[in-house]
């Protein structure tokens, strides 16, 4: 482990719940998640190159940070393990958008409320705000959590209750 990975001390109360697990580089596929430069990313491109007579095949990955949408690249020997982030997706009903830009959300499974996520920046945030303002049936947002971070990455209208 490099020095900068020790800075984050996630004391969440559960005994060392892993935020990543190892997976052999050659087993990772396009559209799967992988850690690159300490960031959870989704693989968008992969290519394998053969090296010299005694070298290992190298896998070149291009991936997009799932929270910042920045493009990151990594090259690793196909036999090496890479960290794969444990990514959880969950839908929440939007109850309201507060004046400070935070959303009031409700977990449909257990009716718990959640008030610690901001409206996303840019077009996605604008779409959600507009949908909340005009829709009386309610909307759902998709919250993605990985490596101690959470973000709203999508939304849709609530299904009609006929």
Automatic annotation (TrEMBL):
One Pfam family named in its UniProt record: eIF-5a
Sorted alphabetically, the keyword list is: Cytoplasm, Elongation factor, Hypusine, Protein biosynthesis, RNA-binding
Q: What is its main location?
A: cytoplasm
Question: Record's superkingdom?
Answer: Eukaryota
Task: Name the SMART domains for this protein.
Answer: eIF-5a
Give start and end of each Translation initiation factor 5A C-terminal domain: 86-156
List where in the cell it is found: Cytoplasm
Q: Which GO terms describe its cellular component?
A: cytoplasm
PTM = eIF-5A seems to be the only eukaryotic protein to have a hypusine residue which is a post-translational modification of a lysine by the addition of a butylamino group.
Keyword presence, RNA-binding = yes
One GO process term, biological-process aspect: positive regulation of translational elongation
Among InterPro entries, the record links this protein to:
IF5A-like, IF5A-like_N, IF5A_C, NA-bd_OB-fold, Rib_uL2_dom2, Trans_elong_IF5A_hypusine_site, Translation_prot_SH3-like_sf
Q: PROSITE patterns attached here?
A: IF5A_HYPUSINE
Does the entry feature the keyword Cell inner membrane, yes or no?
no
* GO terms for MF: ribosome binding; RNA binding; translation elongation factor activity
Described by its record, this protein's role is as follows:
Translation factor that promotes translation elongation and termination, particularly upon ribosome stalling at specific amino acid sequence contexts. Binds between the exit (E) and peptidyl (P) site of the ribosome and promotes rescue of stalled ribosome: specifically required for efficient translation of polyproline-containing peptides as well as other motifs that stall the ribosome. Acts as ribosome quality control (RQC) cofactor by joining the RQC complex to facilitate peptidyl transfer during CAT tailing step.
What protein family is recorded?
A: Belongs to the eIF-5A family.
Q: What is this protein identified as?
A: Eukaryotic translation initiation factor 5A
Record lineage = Eukaryota, Metazoa, Ecdysozoa, Nematoda, Chromadorea
């Amino acid at each position: 482990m490099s020095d900068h990975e020790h800075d984050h001390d996630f004391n969440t109360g559960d005994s060392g719940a892993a935020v990543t697990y190892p997976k052999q580089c050659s087993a990772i596929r396009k559209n799967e998640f992988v850690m690159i430069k300490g960031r959870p990313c989704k693989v968008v491109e992969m290519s394998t190159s053969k090296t010299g007579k005694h070298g290992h095949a190298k896998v070149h990955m291009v991936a997009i940070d799932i929270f910042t949408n920045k493009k990151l690249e990594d090259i690793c020997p196909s036999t090496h393990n890479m960290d794969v982030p444990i990514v959880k997706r969950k839908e929440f009903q939007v109850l309201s958008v507060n004046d400070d830009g935070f959303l009031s959300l409700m977990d449909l499974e257990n009716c718990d409320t959640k008030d610690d996520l901001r409206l996303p920046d840019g077009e996605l945030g604008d779409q959600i705000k507009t949908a909340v303002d005009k829709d009386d049936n309610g909307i759902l947002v998709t919250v993605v959590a990985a490596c101690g971070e959470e973000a709203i990455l999508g939304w849709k209208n609530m299904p009609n209750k006929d």
